[in-house]
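User: Please go through the entry that follows and flag anything odd:
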Amino acid sequence: MEAVKKNEIARALNRAFSGIADDLQEWLLIIGEKIEGDGTKAMADLWNEAKPKNENIIDWYCRRDVSVNMVRELASWHEADENVRKQNESIIQHLRGPRVLDFGAGIGTLAIAISLAYPDMEIDVFEPGPACREFMEWRSEKLGAKINVHVNQPRPQEFYNTIIAMDVAEHLQRPAYLIDFAWQYLDDNGILACNWVFHKDELHPQHIAECTKEANEFHCALREKFGPRDDAAVVHINGWPSIHERINQQDMCSDYWDEQWSDVTRRDDKWPLYQEISKAIEKHMGDENKTSVRVLDIGCGAGALLDRLSAIDGVISTGFDFSPVAVETCKAKGRHAIITDVKDLQIFGIDEGDGADVVICSDLMSYVRRKG
C-alpha cells in the first residue's frame, strides 16, 4: 500500500476514533437522554431480567434501552482500547470495493473510518439497535462521512466486494447464519472480514459460548462455504479479524504463519478461552490431587497460553508449532517450544504413559483438513 494512502487511512482512523466520548455526551444532550453507570453491566442486567428465548433475541437487541446502553458500551470501548483501532486498520488494509457492507455495525466507527478514507466507496450498514443507528447517523454527518444505514438486513441486487462482521457472531441466535449470508451476497472476488469471541460470562450472558452446538455450526459453515481454513487467506489470532476470500488461494504453510507471527501486534493474546483453559488445568490438578502436570500446547503460536500457564505452580508446559518465528518468539520469553508438524506428534508419546497429562488444541482443529 502506497505511503500516501497509508497516511489517508491513518487520518481517517484518527477522526473516527477521536472524541467519541465527547460526541456521545453532545448527542445525549440533543436527544434529551441520560446514560448512567457502566453500559456493559447494564446490558447484562437487562438480559438477565428479560431472559429472551431464541426466537426473541433479535427483538431484545432492538429494544431502545438495550441499544442506548450498547452505545455507551461501544463508545467507551472504542475510545479506550487501542486494539480496536488496530483491528479496524487491519480490515481497511484488506478492503475491497467499491461496495462494502458492515453487518452489525454497532455505533459505526469502522464504517465512518472507511468512508473518510475512501469517499467514493458505497458503504451500507446494518444495525438492529435504534439508538446505535441514530448515534451512527448523527456522528457520520458531523464528520462528513457518507454511509447508508439500514434498519433491516439489506438484500442487494448487486454483490458486495467486502462484508464486515466484527464482534457479531457471538450475539446471533444462529451464528452460522452470518456465513450463509456472506456467501450469498459476496461477489466471487469478495472478502468476509469477521471475528468471533464465543465466550459467555457474568458481564456477557448474551454471548454464545465456545464448545456449543451453535459455535460448532459456525465453524463448520465457515469451512464448508469458504473452504477449509488452511485454504483461506486467514488473519485470525483470537479476536483479530479473520479475512476470508470467496475464492480460496492461501495454503497453510510455515512461511505463511511466519509472516503472521512476525507482526508483533498479534502476539499479545487476551483470548478469554485461555483463562478458562488455565482454570480447567488448575481444577484438574486439584481433582486428581496432583502437585505437577505436564501440559502440551499443540499449535502454540507466539506462546500467549504458555505465558499464562507459566504462572501456575506445578505446570510444566511445552509448545509445538511449525512456524520457526513462533517458536523463536516463545523461546525468547523463556518458554519451552519445539518446531514440529502435526504428523510428527506421535513420536512424543502423547498417548503413552510417559506422555503429557494435558494436551491442548485450542484453535488448531479449525486449520487442519483431516481430524484423525
The chain has 14 helices and ten strands. The longest strand covers residues 186-194. The radius of gyration is 22 Å. The beta strands are 99-103, 122-126, 148-150, 160-165, 186-194, 242-245, 293-298, 315-321, 337-339, 358-360.
